[in-house]
Amino acid sequence: MNIAILGFGVVGSGVAEVIKNNSDSILKNSNVSLKVTRILDIRDFSGNEYENIITNNFDDILGDDTIDIVVETMGGVKPAFDFVLACLNKGKHVVSSNKELVATKGYELLEAAKKNNVNFLFEASVGGGIPIIRPMSRCLAGNKISEVAGILNGTSNFILTKMIMDGMSFADALKLAQDKGYAEKDPTADVEGLDAMRKICILASLAFGYHVYPDGVYSEGISKITLEDVAFAASYDSVIKLIAMTKKLSDDKALVMVSPRLVKNDSMLSGVNGVFNACLVRGDATGDVLMYGKGAGSLATASAVVGDVIDCASYSEERKFFGWDDKKENYLADYLDCETALYVRATGADKAAIEKAFGSVQYLTRENQGADEIAFVTPVKKEKELRDTLACLNMNVLSIIRTADY
Amino acid sequence: MNIAILGFGVVGSGVAEVIKNNSDSILKNSNVSLKVTRILDIRDFSGNEYENIITNNFDDILGDDTIDIVVETMGGVKPAFDFVLACLNKGKHVVSSNKELVATKGYELLEAAKKNNVNFLFEASVGGGIPIIRPMSRCLAGNKISEVAGILNGTSNFILTKMIMDGMSFADALKLAQDKGYAEKDPTADVEGLDAMRKICILASLAFGYHVYPDGVYSEGISKITLEDVAFAASYDSVIKLIAMTKKLSDDKALVMVSPRLVKNDSMLSGVNGVFNACLVRGDATGDVLMYGKGAGSLATASAVVGDVIDCASYSEERKFFGWDDKKENYLADYLDCETALYVRATGADKAAIEKAFGSVQYLTRENQGADEIAFVTPVKKEKELRDTLACLNMNVLSIIRTADY
Question: Quick one: which of A70, B34, B195, B285 could link to A299 by a disulfide (CB 3.0–4.6 Å)?
Answer without folding.
Answer: B285
